[in-house]
Amino acid sequence: PEFIFFNNDGEEYYRCGVKDSAGMARAMDEANKRYGPKEIGWTAYDDETLKAAKEGGKLVLIAFVDGSKESESSLKSLEDRTLVKFHEKIAFLKAEFRKDGEVEKKWGVTSALTFLLVDPTKDGKPLEKLTGKRAVGHWKSPISKSLKAIEKSGR
């Protein structure tokens, strides 16, 4: 028999043939590895990391955080298995929020827990600006919308 695994969006993410119950167990283990949460390697925000993201052609997610539980919870929600499929298309940058800081002024950020989805080829205009605590379900739509906007722009 053949096992086919689908994610919550109905997209196939793993397929394999099995011969016995041990094969079924291995298939389940492999599927869980492929569709599990994945830790994000956040990079500290600066002009060089933004430039590198621009050269890589990726959507940039800039998180302005303050070290609170809400900040950590919102960052952790991006590691959910339903969002992992987007990770390779996004550069994750993190900045510690500083009231009246230069970076915050540049991006028009007035409080911690602000998330910007930025097309790095555009000059400083975020595609989406999200504020406040974010749960898993609050990410998919703005990320999908921003990625589609980048695709439409010809990349």
Our Rg estimate from Cα atoms comes to 18 Å
Q: Fraction of residues in helices?
A: 25-40%
Order of helices and strands: EEHEHEHEHEEH
Question: What is the count of DSSP helices, taking H or I runs of 4+ residues?
Answer: 5
For the secondary structure, the number of strands is 7
Mean pLDDT: 89
Structural class: alpha/beta
Globally, the shape reads: elongated
User: Widest sheet: strand order?
Assistant: 3-5-4-6-7
Quaternary assembly: single chain
Q: Span between N and C termini? A: 40 Å
What does this structure look like?
This protein is of the alpha/beta class and 155 residues long. The chain contains five helices and seven strands; from the N terminus they run E-E-H-E-H-E-H-E-H-E-E-H. The protein has helices spanning 21-34, 47-56, 69-77, 102-107, 140-152, and strands spanning 2-6, 12-17, 43-44, 59-65, 90-96, 114-118, 126-131. The strands form two sheets. Strands 3-5-4-6-7 form a five-stranded mixed β-sheet, with helices on both faces. A hairpin with a 5-residue loop joins strand 1 and strand 2 (12-17). The N and C termini lie far apart (40 Å). The model has no long low-confidence stretch (mean pLDDT 89).
Topology:
Blueprint: E1 2-6, E2 12-17, H1 21-34, E3 43-44, H2 47-56, E4 59-65, H3 69-77, E5 90-96, H4 102-107, E6 114-118, E7 126-131, H5 140-152
Parallel strand pairs: 3-5, 4-5
Antiparallel strand pairs: 1-2, 4-6, 6-7
Which descriptors would you attach to this protein?
five-stranded mixed β-sheet, 25% strand, alpha/beta, single chain
